[in-house]
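quick one, 311 residues, struct below
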Amino acid sequence: MFKPLEGKTLLVTGATGFIGSHLVERLRRVPGSRLILLSRHPSNLSAERIAQVTCDCQKLTSAVWQESGVSEIDYVFHLAAEIPKISTQDSSTVYHSNVKGTVALLESLPSVPEKFLLASTLDVYAHIGHGQVLSEESPLRPHGHYSASKAQCETLVAETAVAQGFPYVAMRYGHIYGPGEQAYRKLIPETIRRLLSGKPPVVHGDGSAERDYLFVGDAVEATIRAACVDPVPAGPLNIVRGESCTIRDVVETLVQITAFAGSVQYLTDRPTGHSLRFDNSKMRKSLGEWPLVPLVEGLRREVADAQTQRE
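---
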């Protein structure tokens, strides 16, 4: 699987983030490769084949790479992004930060990459009717500055790739969960925090809304496969499980895992929300098949990690 990456220089932006940190752990196993870790906060990783560049993407210039001793980059894994729920509110700051950061990265690269992997989001799609399934052919209508920035970044990378002649993949990540997402104010980590504190989990509506949850290890597997496949799939890829489950099932499973004795608090005066279902057939056809981590097992791992962090 790692063959095309062996002996290459691999850049990971957002290297200390949720998905980025898991990706780095996998890429460290690539024989003979050199890892360039770019983030605003230095990583605690230290190894002979790892170089760290502490810089905001918006401030990247050719001089930054020169001063860091980076003269060429073969593969770019661009995961860095401003995310509203862990930084600012959903404002124009998020949009401009992500777009300017991507522009600065593309313009400053010390060499034309062999491949560019962009982390995008399923939030670029327009809302669809009940029971419908979103595929890569579904219409786009970003809702919010974050999703709008990702749609714009997809366009920027595509245009630059055509102009400079390098292949790229826009990976539209779905609801990724797993150890390390504690910084997010999302359903799963929020529910785990409450349960481990002895508080009842809270669900808006009756919990019947469906979500497609993919374990972070499977998201990383898909990302590495996207970097290694030849030729690259045309157009974006939905990085999803392809199966949805209700929010109620997720929360009640976490209640069982943590052996919480209380009951789930359903706020029936709040809107339940709409269900989301996604097609992953293009991902499977392009990247091949592998056994995905079952939801119950993935949730157990995240709970165990959260318990460790509390100790």
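DSSP finds nine helices and 13 strands in the chain.
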